[in-house]
Design a protein that fits this description.
The complex is a heterodimer of chains A (about 450) and B (about 290).
Chain A (H helix, E strand, L loop, with lengths): L2 H10 L33 E2 L5 E2 L1 E5 L26 H13 L5 E5 L6 H18 L5 E5 L6 H10 L2 E3 L7 H7 L5 H24 L11 E7 L6 H14 L4 E6 L18 H16 L4 H4 L13 H7 L7 E2 L5 H4 L7 H10 L7 H4 L6 H4 L3 E2 L12 H8 L2 H14 L13 H9 L3
Parallel strand pairs in A: 3-4, 4-5, 5-6, 6-7, 7-8, 9-10
Antiparallel strand pairs in A: 1-2
Helix pairs in contact in A: 2-3, 3-4, 4-6, 7-8
Chain B lengths: L6 E5 L3 H13 L6 E4 L9 E4 L4 H15 L1 H11 L6 H15 L10 H23 L3 E3 L2 E6 L6 H11 L4 E6 L4 E6 L2 E6 L10 H17 L7 H7 L32 H9 L14
Helix pairs in contact in B: 1-2, 2-3, 3-5, 4-5, 5-6
The chains are: A alpha/beta (about 450), B alpha/beta (about 290).
């Protein structure tokens, strides 16, 4: 088989994995004849036609699989072409792509061929070639194979910058139904092992400065969204637990694209739930950088995110008792909770207000989205002049431009006069019905 | 300081030249209405003053900035000087004057119009430098790696170290077609030179092989059910595509004739659903402010 054909098959099989980041580790180049360095902020190298970043060469070692996970394109009973890289072929492509600045490094995963240990050994062989023979000093993300011996996972982690175990599906029940060959423990066991190894390693480094680092950029995971009945609330509670208990660096979400067995999964005409995935990423950001807890965003009674409002606006709208806050006095943590103020603009506000009192006209310069923030803030004790606070007006400003466009489109189609001042102002409920098609 | 708003400083275009404009402004107590490099055609009315570049004066200004306003301030000034903005020199002058008035804390006055614009211009320069790290593509010509870029700002001084560190054992050249300069590197030595043009030989079979591999990987990795051209364009603006391997068929001087291959099929219904969801930009690397 031609190399180009292999690359197409094994790239095609790997593309549903969401993670492609090259972040988390800073490393200068070395004078040992090899190439490569790494930047903690990560560098994207291209953007695919779906708008996702391409940072790493994301491929499988092989897509021949002994497992038959129903959601997976590589399951045994799926009729697709199969291929397999030799470790040499893959190392050679990686180096040549890297020299040309196509990629930041390699993201290596694999279907399970023969057994988990053998699969893991094949991956180790390729990474060993890259690191030892080519002295490749760029980024490597390796996927741990569930069920592989912990000794092999340890070796994989010594070559990789980041290591991940896919949690695949958000609950035990979903996993039992769709991935009968994988158990929850086969996923959490290596995850726990990796966490322990990273922690043990960080104490060792204190003792021996030249100890090799185990997965210096940490551990991540991903789960598929929309293949099962699991709710947003379950999913963000799980992410929160993964961040806290296993010290994961990232949890990725992947909207289910119907490639699986349609007898037990959404059929081929189901569009991937992109808006839901987007809401989950927004919530994920709130957990990691904004100091929110999962149960502030959703709870037993509210299991799903609002399709109209992002989770932060939704939280703010439901906590009117906490607003407005004074821009010139509120602590950083409080500023972060104002819709329209992000991490950067909150920092800028804290810096700038030490030098001069801030007025509304200053906020735009600091990167605040004033049309959203205006309902939740005061500047020097005053609200924005001429601010009209009706539910309809507020909602319109808080929704994203694309949601507003969609609603306006429906309005003109169905001759509904949402913003006719004579009729009663539409409520949140009306908008929701409109978007979900009940109106 | 007399504010003779009709005076225009003309300097040699160098960083030292800008420093000398600042020197002149302070010592002659003259605030110019504009500062222009001498290689430009001068059409505006007004009195022109030629500022002669004097290394000693430049050094005095530079060290005054460094000691009174700090290393960070000087770094910002240097990055401003790389900007393509027409008023960059005047902006630097205003910023330095403000700096000497308020001291180091001037950097915190983010709501001040001059400081605010300084930060915006600086971050635009830094952003384009970062995009160049992302989208620059080398081709191998007999063991020498060559890349062509066409940035608006003068980014080469900001990206040279990155590649010199990353590709230590290699020999490479990055040619900035817009500013007619290039960084050249061989093991142990990196420098920036000025060149007018660059004629590249035809790519070898080996080079074509890797270009083809990369192109097919690029085309396969996009998920067609998620097709989202607007999101792609936000992250990777079209003006970079002309020099990127994945957007060009294999003909050598591809920076001249971008063919802009679309990669994944365009069907109307996919576009409309992608349009609706264009807010769901899912680059895992970029931060989402919510």
């Amino acid at each position: 088989m031609e190399l180009i054909e292999k690359l197409e098959i094994l790239g095609d099989s790997a593309k549903y994995d969401a993670a492609c980041t090259s972040s988390g580790v800073d490393r200068r180049g070395r004078n040992d004849g090899g190439i490569g360095n790494s930047y903690a902020c990560g560098i994207c190298h291209s953007f695919a036609a779906d708008g996702r970043c391409i940072s790493l060469l994301k491929v499988l070692m092989t897509n021949s699989c002994i497992y038959n996970c129903k959601y997976c394109i590589n399951r045994t009973d799926n009729d697709i072409p199969r291929a397999r890289f030799t470790p040499e072929e893959l190392a050679d492509i990686t180096i040549n792509f890297y020299r040309r600045n196509y990629i930041e490094g390699l993201f290596l995963s694999s279907a399970v061929i023969r057994n988990p240990d053998y699969t893991c050994e094949q991956m180790i062989e390729c990474l060993a070639l890259l690191r030892n023979k080519y002295r490749f000093n760029g980024y490597i993300h390796a996927k741990a194979i569930p069920g592989a011996d912990s000794e092999l996972i340890s070796r994989l982690g010594m070559y990789a910058d980041r290591i991940s175990v896919n949690i695949e599906l958000p609950s035990q029940q979903s996993l039992e139904r769709l991935a009968p060959d994988k158990s929850r423990s086969s996923i959490f066991l290596p995850m726990g092992h990796i966490t322990a190894k990273i922690q043990q390693n960080s104490t060792e480094i204190v003792k021996y400065r030249h100890a090799d680092k185990f997965a210096p950029a940490g551990q991540s995971t991903q789960m598929i969204i929309g293949a099962t009945e699991d709710t947003d609330y379950q999913i963000i509670r799980l992410s929160e637990a993964l961040y806290n208990k296993y010290s994961l660096k990232r949890v990725f979400f992947s909207a289910y694209v119907p490639v699986g067995d349609s007898r037990v999964l959404p059929d081929e005409n189901t569009p991937p739930p992109l808006l839901r995935e987007h809401r989950l990423y927004q919530a994920d950001w709130l957990l990691r950088f904004y100091g929110y807890r999962a149960d502030e965003l959703l709870d037993e009674k509210h299991q799903s995110f609002d399709p109209l409002l992002d989770p932060k606006c939704n939280w703010a709208v439901n906590h009117p008792e906490l607003f407005p806050v004074e821009i010139n006095k509120a602590p950083y943590e409080t500023l972060l909770r104002v819709p329209g103020i992000g991490v950067k603009s909150a920092n800028r506000i804290c810096t700038a207000r030490r030098e001069a009192k801030l007025r509304f006209e200053d906020l735009k310069k600091l990167g605040v989205v004033v049309k959203r923030a205006q309902y939740f803030i005061t500047c020097m004790g005053r609200q924005q002049q001429g601010l009209i606070i009706t539910e309809a007006a507020v909602m319109r400003q808080l929704m994203s431009a694309s949601t507003v466009r969609k609603l306006d489109g429906m309005q003109s189609m169905e001759q509904l006069s949402f913003f006719d001042e004579k009729s009663a102002a539409p409520t949140l409920e009306d908008y929701r019905k409109c978007l979900t098609g009940q109106m | 300081m007399s504010d003779r708003s009709d005076v225009i400083f003309v300097y040699d275009g160098s960083f030292d030249g800008i420093m000398c404009c600042i020197f002149y402004c302070y010592y002659e107590k003259t605030m110019p209405s504009d500062i222009r490099p001498s290689d430009e055609e001068q059409l505006m009315l007004g009195a022109y003053i030629d500022i002669i570049t004097d290394c000693e004066k430049a050094e005095r200004v530079r060290s005054a900035i460094k000691t009174k306003l700090g290393e960070d301030f000087l770094k910002i000034v240097q990055r401003l000087s790389l900007s393509f903005e027409e008023d960059r020199e005047l902006l630097i002058l205003k910023f330095v004057i403000l700096g000497f008035k308020y001291g180091r804390r001037v950097l915190s006055r983010l709501a001040d119009n001059t400081v605010n614009r300084v930060m915006k211009v600086e971050s635009y320069v830094a952003k384009e430098a970062h995009l160049s790290l992302e989208f620059l593509r080398f081709s191998d010509y007999g063991g020498v790696l060559v890349a062509v870029i066409e940035p608006k700002n003068t980014v080469l001084p900001l990206i040279a170290d990155h590649f010199a560190d990353r590709l230590r054992p290699e020999r490479f050249m990055i040619f900035d077609k817009n500013h007619k300069m290039a960084v050249i590197h061989e093991p142990g030595r990196t420098e920036i030179i000025y060149i007018d043009s660059l004629d590249l030989p035809r790519a070898s079979e080996e080079e074509r092989k890797f270009r083809a591999l990369w192109r097919s990987f690029y085309n396969i990795i996009g998920i067609k059910e998620r097709y989202n051209p607007r999101c792609r364009m936000n992250h990777c603006p079209k003006r970079y595509w002309g020099n990127m391997t994945e957007f060009n068929d294999d003909e050598d001087n591809y920076s001249d004739k971008p063919s802009l291959s679309e990669g994944v099929l365009l069907s109307d219904d996919v576009i409309s659903s992608a349009d609706m969801l264009s807010e769901s930009s899912i680059s895992s690397e970029s931060s989402t402010e919510v």
